[in-house]
Automatic annotation (TrEMBL):
This is Uncharacterized protein. Belongs to the peroxisomal membrane protein PXMP2/4 family. Pfam families: Mpv17_PMP22. It comes from Ceratopteris richardii (Triangle waterfern). One of its GO terms (cellular component) is cytoplasm. It is a multi-pass membrane protein.
Length: 129
């Protein structure tokens, strides 16, 4: 999962925070809440989908197995993200200078990656309908 941090998380967060800063350059409450909402609606689901897919492919799973994993694990991870990330995002967008935002976010993302890795490693049975 080191590759996920080096090749996926770091560059994508750098791009994301710069995009948010360019799109909403002020640090007022309204801009901060917009950045947070976009993170939960766009960045979080995209990153988690790529993370789970990459993890599954690296474990040798086939495309149908990856899709089954996403159906099984993505929604619980997104729900967990709704609990974990809003306060961190608020503090980061509101008080941390843009050039340090990826570093601060990656510090908290370390714990989040542990959670995602745990979720991705679970062997759950998929109920057939």
């Amino acid at each position: 999962m080191l590759a996920a941090g080096l090749l996926l998380s770091g560059p994508s967060l750098h791009f994301w925070f710069n995009l948010m800063s360019a799109t909403f350059p002020t640090r007022d409450i309204a801009s901060t809440l917009k950045k947070m909402a976009l993170g939960q609606i766009v960045y979080g689901p995209t990153f988690n989908t790529v993370f789970f897919s990459l993890n599954a492919y690296l474990q040798g799973e086939t495309t149908p197995e990856v899709i089954a994993r996403l159906k099984r694990d993505l929604l619980p991870a997104l729900k967990g993200g709704l609990i974990y990330w809003p306060l961190i995002d608020f503090l980061t967008y509101r008080y941390v200078p843009v050039h340090l935002q990826p570093l601060v976010n990656n510090s908290f993302a370390y714990l989040w990656t542990i959670y995602l890795t745990y979720m991705a490693s679970l062997k759950k049975t998929v109920l057939q309908a």
